[in-house]
Amino acid sequence: MSIQSVGMKAYSEALNSFASGNKKVQQSTVAEEKTTTSFIDTVEASVKKVNDMQQEKSGMIESFASGEQQNVHELMITLQKASVAMNLTSAVRNKVLNAYNEISKMQF
After folding, report:
1. What's the pTM value of the predicted model, to 2 decimals?
2. Which residue has the higher pLDDT, 94 or 71?
């Protein structure tokens, strides 16, 4: 009997979470339609997010090594997020450099 109530509670919490996330997405799309950002602003914001992830990763490694934090799962998730973000940033940078080199080779 208690398993069903726990299951229903988890289901209702997930449903509420989804509904609130859906509202946030709708609000963010409305906000994005109103504002226009330049390419440079977008790149700067993305690089700042990657830098913040790297700093968060370093902080979590230090806190885990010092014994302040014992949750290995959160540490590994943070490490993977930072790694994926850095790999994606490097891939985008390489593509932009390749495109620049191709454009510079063109004869006008």
Report:
1. 0.59
2. 94
